[in-house]
Hints:
2 strands, about 5% strand, little secondary structure, two-stranded antiparallel ribbon
Amino acid sequence: xxxxxxxxxxxxxxxxxxxxxxxxxxxxxxxxxxxxxxxxxxxxxxxxxxxxxxxxxxxxxxxxxxxxxxx
Length: 71
């Protein structure tokens, strides 16, 4: 025993109150579970092909130097 017994009541931790507002999006995972990602789906734009020269680019803008053809 580390402490001498007293006649006072034992201390009690404060009650946990549920916070107001919308509940959390994800549940609390167990320590043995794989951690979840950010929750957002990652996607990229497909490459667009220029109708004038066939150049592949990540934007719909035409290249400044078309590779040929009479336009």
